[in-house]
Design a protein that fits this description.
By secondary structure, the chain is of the alpha/beta class. The chain is 41% helix and 14% strand. It folds into two domains: 150 residues, Rossmann fold, CATH 3.40.50; 59 residues.
């Protein structure tokens, strides 16, 4: 386990009853697909294309939150172009990150309520979960547009927990790979957990994860030990 900011000892944490996961680049590798679809939009809007590094640094918010900032009054047109480009390629390129399927199956077998809270458009998200064969592992799969507001607002967390009967709190972990995920956990009163090491500490200065794991096996071993 690696830590950024405050990483409490195991005895300071309650055993989680629910674990909610971000989707893109927490459970599945999506960067190249997102990057290609975004550059299709930028080209159509006659804006400079982004490098893959810029995409990784800039993509955090949902389309309805981020596209008005980038495309102004034409944001809905841009969203349509993006979604068309994304739909054309995303299922064929869908790839689980290492150890994720084993992690999810082990957690499900141990009786944890599992859910997804993503800023990917909800219909696309559920289509991916179905294609990859993970739908039955989750009690809820919540994407952008499903709740009144998207991450980092707490609304999608509350919606994701509805089938469990649980309230947001310290027995709910929100696992993600970006500062937006950590901010969402703080906003909803859940435990923020970082999985992966593809970002820098700078992103987490305002909302540091309470726990950080470089790989899925370490996360599972830690949960098992609580």
């Amino acid at each position: 386990m690696t830590a950024i900011g405050l990483a409490p000892a195991a005895q300071d944490l309650a055993r989680p009853r629910a674990i909610l996961f971000d989707w893109d680049n927490t459970l599945v590798d999506s960067w190249t697909t997102i990057h290609e679809a975004l550059n299709a939009v930028l080209a159509a809007m006659e804006k400079p294309l982004w490098s893959l590094r810029q995409t990784k640094e800039r993509v955090r918010l949902s389309l309805r939150e981020s596209f008005p900032l980038h495309f102004g009054d034409r944001w809905e047109e841009a969203r349509g172009i993006y979604l068309d480009a994304f739909r054309a390629i995303h299922l064929d390129r869908l790839s689980p990150l290492p150890g994720r399927v084993e992690l999810l199956r082990a957690l499900a077998a141990d009786g944890f309520f599992l859910g997804v809270v993503s800023n990917k458009t909800g219909a696309l998200l559920r289509r991916e979960a179905e294609r990859i064969g993970w739908s039955e592992l989750f009690g809820s799969v919540i994407g952008a547009g499903d709740a009144a507001l998207d991450k980092p607002d707490p609304a999608p967390v509350a919606l994701a927990l509805e089938p469990s009967g649980l309230e947001p709190g310290d027995t709910v972990w929100l696992v993600g790979d970006t500062g937006i995920d950590m901010e969402c956990a703080y906003n909803s009163g859940c435990i923020p957990v970082l999985l992966g090491n593809g970002t820098t500490e700078e992103e987490f200065r305002r909302c540091a994860p309470r726990l950080a794991f470089s790989d899925a096996a370490s996360l599972f071993d830690f949960v098992r030990g609580l």
